[in-house]
Structure formats: structure tokens, C-alpha cells
Design brief:
about 300 residues; mainly alpha; two-stranded antiparallel ribbon; 14 helices; disordered C terminus
Length: about 300
Amino acid sequence: MKGLWDEGVPEAEHRHCARHLEKNFNKVFRDKTLKDPLWKAAREVTIRRFKAVMLEIKSIDEEAYNWLLAAGPHHWSRSHFRTQPKCDILVNNMCEGFNGTKSILAARDRPILSLLERIRMYMIQRLTKNRHSVIMWESFNAPRVAIVLEKNKVETGSHIPTKGSEFMYQVMNIRWELTSIPCSHAVAAIWHKREDLVTYVSKWHTKEYYMKAYSQQIFPIRNQDEWPRSGKVGMIKPIGKNQPRRPKKSRRVELDELAPPTAKKLKRRYVRMRCSGYGAMGHNFRTCARNNLNSGKDNPPADPGTYARNSS
């Protein structure tokens, strides 16, 4: 990625998914009171606040404190992230979203060549779709960035910027350095200078660089029958034993990843039914024997054959 474009791409930062970190943490320390401080430490954007939360964890369990420090805060806490990548994401939702697509799930049980071919076709369609969507952008920046800016504009009303010099103001927030999207404090200072907010958004969020990200093309390849022969022994199917039950195509979802339950109709268990026609207990009007008998006499079916069959 470093030599992909003329100006280069910042080196990627290796981060740990905070959700997976929490799962491993819970296997060792089963104290539920440590969950909220763990996530609070992961979300803090300043080292000073991070240390304050870590001292809170240390007061509860010193071994948990040492375990989190050994995991490397620069991998899982925003307070220690480098500001060069312009991303503050804590979890691997982007990877999970890719793995959870219908095309990937349908190809998981295929042989390796068929699997790769389906992924290649999926990526061709995805790149084309994203290129077209970027062309349709109405703004200079990404739509998500525009939404964040509008939200920060609303919060700016409670900020009073104090100018120290031409390029220094009292209002400042390190979150701006992490994402390169002006926070409400930065918006107040930029408006005080009567400048355009768009010019302060990082180039990595612009329409031009999104187009560069999806400009690469995956070219079609010839059919497998036309591939050159290597003369070597082909792949042999591994010796395996068919396991009982149908194999799973998707990973097991944890309880905290499930969507909130929706309202469902309660079962009529332990409820005594009353017949609305005759008032008897233990059944309803539809299953009432007297009702069925009377309805058959009063309103016989029009088809004599049907009536004969029902009578028999």
C-alpha cells in the first residue's frame, strides 16, 4: 500500500478487536464489574483519562490490570492509537461484514478454486458498484463525514473559542487528530476564522481518494480448461470422515452480538378457554362439538357428495 499512489499511503496500524479482547478477558477474569471499565478504557481518547480508568480497574483486580497492559494499549485503546491512519474504529465490523455477505457464505463449502472464483466475481461487482456510488456523491467529502460535520455544527453553539495566535485556539480536542474530521471544538475555531470546514477534512475522506481506492480493476481470466498444464501431480482430496449433522456455514454468534428481541405473541399456555357460543370451559367456539353439529344440520354443504363424505 505504501507505493500504491504517488504520495504514498500511511502504514497500516495493527489493532485488536475490542470485542474479541473482551471475550478472552472474560475467560480469565469472570468479574462482570470489569466489563464497563474495560470498554471505557478502550474508548478514551487521551492517555491521562486512560490511566485514570486503568487505576479503577487496578483497584478492583490487579491481575486484570496487568493482563490488559500486557495486551498492549496501543492495540486496543484509542488513547494510544496513532493519528496518521485517520481511523478510530475499535472492532473488526468491516471484516465481519465482508465475511457475512451472501456470496461469501454460499462459497464457503466449495473447493478452493471454486471458492476463489466466487470471491473474485463478488469483488468485481463490489468494486464496480462502489465506483458508481462515489460518482453519485453530491458533496466533496464522503456522505458519512458530511453527517458528522453537521452534528458537530449543532454542538458548536456551546463553545466559545479563544484565539491565542493565528493558528492556535483554546478549544481543542484530540479526537480531531484521530479521525481528521473537525470536532465541535475545531468547528468553533474554524468558524471564528471564517474559513471553510471542508478544507480541514483529511484528504482520505474526499471523493478523489475514494475513487482512487476503488480504481483498481480485477480482470477476467480464461476458463479453467484453458489453463496451461504444469505436468505436476494434481491436488488430492484429503482423507476425511463425514461428521454427523449438517456442517455450519457461518460462525456462532455471541449473545451480545444478537439483535434485540422483538415483541412476539405469547403462547396461550395455562389459560382456560371458554366457548363464546355456549359458555362451556375447556374449548373455543371453533372446536366446539355442539357448534359443529348444529352448523352441519342448519347449513349443509351445497355439494351432496361432499355432505355424504362428511357424514360418513
